[in-house]
Amino acid sequence: MTAVWHRLLFLLALLPIVATANDLFGQEERLPTVDEAIQLIADADWDNQQLLLDFELIDDVYLYQHRFGFTLRDTNGNVLEDFASYELPAGEPKVDEIFGEVEVYFDRLALQLPVTSVPLVDTELEVRYQGCIDKTLCYPPTKKVFDFPSPAPEKKAPAAPAASPSDSGFLDTLNSDDANAFNRWMSGHSLLWIIGLFFVGGLLLAFTPCVFPMVPILSGIIAGEDNPSAARGFTLSTSYVLGMAIPYTLAGLLVALFGAGLNLQFLLQQPAAIITSVVIFVLLSLSMFGLYELQLPAFLRNRLHQPGEEKRGSLVGAAIMGAISALVVSPCVTPILAGALIYVAASGDAATGAASLFALSIGMGVPLIIFGTGGGSLLPRAGMWMEEIKRFFGVVMLGVAIWLLDRIISDTITLGLYGLLLAVYGVQLGALEPAGEGIARLKRGLALVLALYGAVMIVGALSGGSDPLQPLAPMTQSAPSATASSTPDSANTHGPWQTLKGQGNLESALARSQQAGKPVLVDFFAEWCVACKVLEETTLSHPDVLEAMAGFDLYRVDITEINADSQAIMEQHNILGLPALVFFTPGGGEIPESRVLGEMGPERFIEHLDKRVMPAL
Q1: What pLDDT is stored for residue 257 in this prediction?
Q2: Which of 105, 171, 224, 484 is the most exposed place for a label (fewest CB within 10 A)?
Q3: Which residues of 166-203 are buried (b: 16+ CB within 10 A; e: fewer)?
């Protein structure tokens, strides 16, 4: 009823216009159109991360404050900014015949709409407003759309389709640690070139810490065979890699459909996903100890069975393990993967997203296939040694399960589980058996060392330890002072770095830095992110890097815990995955095209500071 009543009042307000228009403007004059009465000019100031709007109003024309609306989208319709928190300046109070007590603007209105981050694609700004001629006419709600080109420099397309991959742009992009470089390169090349780039990039990613945990998993699958061979190793490792490619391909499709707001990396670290993966690895490890044999149900085995292919079920199992490994074991984001996600999220091109990430995963899998083929031929045939190797990889699977569980349990409990695993495995190897001769004596000695070290880790865990390399540290170090122990979790310090937890603490820290006029580097990290720890140990703590950032406020935002607050932080700052480093100017705006996604060495990081960050300060 309220909406109908407003429309009725609006029509009644128009009735006196027909009768009085000639008196007000003369017989030969007409009422000005909305574009004549309200002139709007829009511009993009990407350097200061804002959009500028300038309204020029003729005499006696005003704009309603409460009728404004702004939406920034990419060319595929994905909303980039809705400016929901933007506060309009105060207007003049007015009692309106339709809306009652309102605030309005006369003469001229200049607005600066802040943008959270500079878009890397073409955008369009939709502006909604409504104005009136005082005591004469109210115009209907008006909507205007302004197009803004991408601020990223344009890339020239290849001169000819037959150009070779030795193109310097291809090599420069492949060698880049900047995710935006991959995004810019893809925007100017064909799908075939993009697939080639990501295949070669996947080959390079195969040697990063995020992929290393897949090696023992694949080894365990091959070791589970009764008669491993090069041919069998090749078949199993290929099935594993194809299974690994499925989640990557689906990720490309989902990000293209739902945009950057779909944070797959974060979703896959939910406790339910981790616990499910832990259970699978435990079941797989128990099969290595001979408690049972994992295979497909009988009705599926009968359908799949063909002469000479009795192990078809294990191929499906290898593919399933590959998919699980890609989902949970390797959760880190690298520059080339982040570049693909940025491009796909902005373009909405599902085909490009699926094809590029499929090529990336296959490139990552090629070294695994080579390793699996060689490993299959090197493993011994059935016998006592084969049983020992199976049990060894069973222990490795349990170690992977504990490593996954570490993301949702305390470090102290993790240390205790590692200790229990080593102690039990040492006893199983014969630590408590009488010493034999030759190899048997050496085996007992190694078993005894494992069992003793496992026992030490258990004792360390019971005393509050958390470091596997120094399990007894709490028993050998003095108690922390009262001052140190009173430091809240929301503001821990690690040298010049200040660790923050929670969206409110981050916003307060950024506000303090802006008030002090200091540039800021924010490191978004999580304990379950392998590359985050590598980046912290090799680059962010490097003396040359710290010296280069002497004038910065350095914040580490801990989003290890899987909760709504961490999700809100990642959505607010458009964090596609971890690790992610975001630079801010002294004025509080993010420096365009300066983000670091994934690992970066100290020398490259300092070069990145000189080329991308310092010129903007």
Answers
A1: 67
A2: 484
A3: eeebbeebbebbbbbbbbbbbbebeeebbbbbbbbbbb
Q: Please choose, from the candidates 524, 562, 506, the residue with its C-alpha nearest in 3D space to the C-alpha of residue 332.
A: 524
Report the b/e string of 76-110 with b at 16+ CB within 10 A: eebebbebeeeeeeebeebeeeebeebbbbeeebe
Structure tokens belonging to residue 560: 């290890």
Query: Count of residues for the chain?
Result: 617
Binned at pLDDT 50, 70 and 90, residue 310 comes out as very low
- What letter represents residue 427's amino acid? V
Query: pLDDT tier at 113 (50, 70, 90 boundaries)?
Result: very high
Question: What's the CATH class of domain 31-148?
Answer: mainly beta
CB 436 within 8 A of CB 589: no
Alpha carbon 414 to its chain centroid, in Å, reads 26
The domain locations on the chain are 31-148, 168-383, 488-616
CA separation for the pair 289, 218 (Å, rounded): 17
- Residue identified by tokens 């809240």 is 488
Percent of the chain at pLDDT exceeding 90: 21
CA-only gyration radius of the chain, Å: 31
Percent of the chain exceeding pLDDT 70 equals 71
Q: Does position 579 have pLDDT exceeding 90, yes or no? A: no
Reading the block at residue 15, the tokens are 């009735």
Q: Which of 287, 251, 288, 283 is closest to 267 using CA atoms?
A: 251
CA 59/CA 605 separation, integer angstroms: 56
Measured in whole angstroms, the distance separating CA 7 from the mean position of its chain's CA atoms is 47
**On the CB side of 460, how many CA atoms lie within 13 Å of its CA?**
27
Question: What are the DSSP calls for 185-208, one per residue?
Answer: HHTTS-HHHHHHHHHHHHHHHTTS
Helix 335-347 and helix 191-205: axis angle, to 10°? 150
Q: Say if residue 19 is exposed, middle or buried (CB neighbours under 10 Å; 0-12, 13-18, 19+).
A: exposed
All residues at 6 or more sequence positions from 175 whose CB lies less than 8 Å from its CB, including other chains: none
pLDDT band at 89 (very low <50, low <70, confident <90, very high): very high
Q: Under DSSP, is residue 596 helix (H, G, I), strand (E, B) or coil?
A: strand
- Encoded tokens for 233: 């190793």
Six-digit token string for 238: 């290929």
pLDDT at 341: 67
In 3D, which of 10, 434, 82 has the Cα closest to residue 443? 434
What burial class does residue 15 get, using C-beta atoms within 10 Å of its C-beta: 0-12 exposed, 13-18 middle, 19+ buried?
A: exposed
* Burial class of residue 372, CB neighbours in 10 A (0-12, 13-18, 19+): buried
Which sign does the torsion angle of CA 19, 24, 29, 32 carry? Answer: negative
Q: Supply the DSSP symbol for 359.
A: H
- Note the CATH number of domain 488-616: 3.40.30.10
Q: What pLDDT, in 10s, does the model give residues 275-285?
A: 877 887 787 77
40: closest CA among 63, 67, 60, 59?
Answer: 63
Across the chain, how many H-helices and E-strands are there?
A: 23, 18
